[in-house]
User: What shape does this take?
Amino acid sequence: MLKNIHKKIVMDENNNPSEVIIKYKEWKEIEQILKSYQKKMTKGKLIKYLGIINIKEDPMDFQRKIRSEWR
Assistant: This one.
């Protein structure tokens, strides 16, 4: 597993991060890690959580409220 990712952050004209450059070998390792996670979660495994969460408010309002906390 990756312990340290060597990366370069590319900034745009407003000095905001716009891209990340990483070594190809590290990218391939990241892809393998992501691929292993994708195989673990299937529709069948998610079905057991269907109806578990009961939200009293409108789901879209709840989502907006939670996302506004990120800012």
